[in-house]
Amino acid sequence: MVNGKIQTLNQFIIERQKEHPYAKGEFSRLMHHVGIAAKIVNREVNKAGLVDLLGDAGEENIQGETQQKLDVYADVHFIDALKSCGEVCGIATEENQHMITFNNALSKDAKYIFLMDPLDGSSNIDVNVSIGTLFSIYKRVTPVGTKAEMQDFLQPGNQQVASGYILYGSSTMLVYTTGNGVNGFTLDPSIGEFCLSHRDIKTPKDGTIYSINEGNYSKFPFGVKSYIKYCQENDAKTKRPYSSRYIGSLVADFHRNFLKGGIFMYPESVSYPTGKLRLLYECNPIAFLAEQAGGLASDGFNRIMDIQPKELHQRIPFYVGSSNMVKKIEQFLKER
Ligand code: AHG
Ligand code: MN
Ligand code: MN
Hints:
- It contains eight helices and 15 strands.
- It is of the alpha+beta class.
- It folds into two domains: about 10-200, Fructose-1,6-Bisphosphatase, Chain A, domain 1 (2-Layer Sandwich); about 210-335, D-Maltodextrin-Binding Protein, domain 2.
- An eight-stranded mixed β-sheet has the order 4-3-5-6-7-8-9-10, with helices on both faces. A five-stranded mixed β-sheet has the order 12-11-13-15-14, with helices on both faces.
- Strand 1 and strand 2 form a beta hairpin.
- About 45% of the residues are buried.
- Bound molecules: 2,5-anhydro-1,6-di-O-phosphono-D-glucitol and manganese (II) ion (2 copies).
- 2,5-anhydro-1,6-di-O-phosphono-D-glucitol binds near residues 122 and 249.
């Protein structure tokens, strides 16, 4: 609410566009279509149990993970929405082995590349626990008017033009950044609009929540094990022991820690030697949001957004959240 008035996502996008006098409205149109796709997916998520949208789709994605029906649904609907908006020349998603490029009459002058995890937290779909969508937007580096190439997709996160997520939770939220702070919008189902509810989000520098799949403890690197023990120690001055919170949906786990202060960790392990989360679809978009709100994102040693991607589906260890907590785990990893 602004001066008691509701500000919708579209009004907000148009207002921001006015701040850039040379902007031609292309990005605004793209974001408008992201909002539409989010509402379509949200509609299906909300009635999934009623319309045979639960369960697996009988296929595996490129990473050998079972695709859920909603994974496929979200993937198809986001791709359709982006195709028809004409502002995107290429898409890569967690569910597709190869990049998708558009070179039709509508998209031939498009300059944006769109990367996404269409449905995050698939294992939580069937049990009515929060899930999400993650996206990351870049400007192409190859000439406009030609077919997008792999180098357009393999840009480091520090080149992101925008990133965000949609959280299908107790309410549905869209949170995004264009590098000028982070703003959150809550879907008001009565008017079918995302409305500004969290202006200029700042994440606390210190937090009291740690989020990690602790069942894998024995498979973690020594530095991570030591940090977990540190989180559990009793020290009133540093508000320890911290609370352990883990949903198993990155978007939901991050969102909670983002607002309350905390750290989310998905280290490399015996089962996932290079980590589980995907640099392009999960880590970079979250890293951009975290940094824009005053937090940090690291692979344990390097800033996530400075890592040069080598392949579309690359996985990486991930530590993100309150700046002092991320610095602390980096210290543990370096020392041990
Ligand atoms: P996705 O559903 O897109 O494959 O992502 C699942 C990810 C992420 O959301 C979550 O943080 C993590 O996997 C959970 O993994 P574990 O079940 O191994 O803890
Ligand atoms: Mn995911
Ligand atoms: Mn996914």
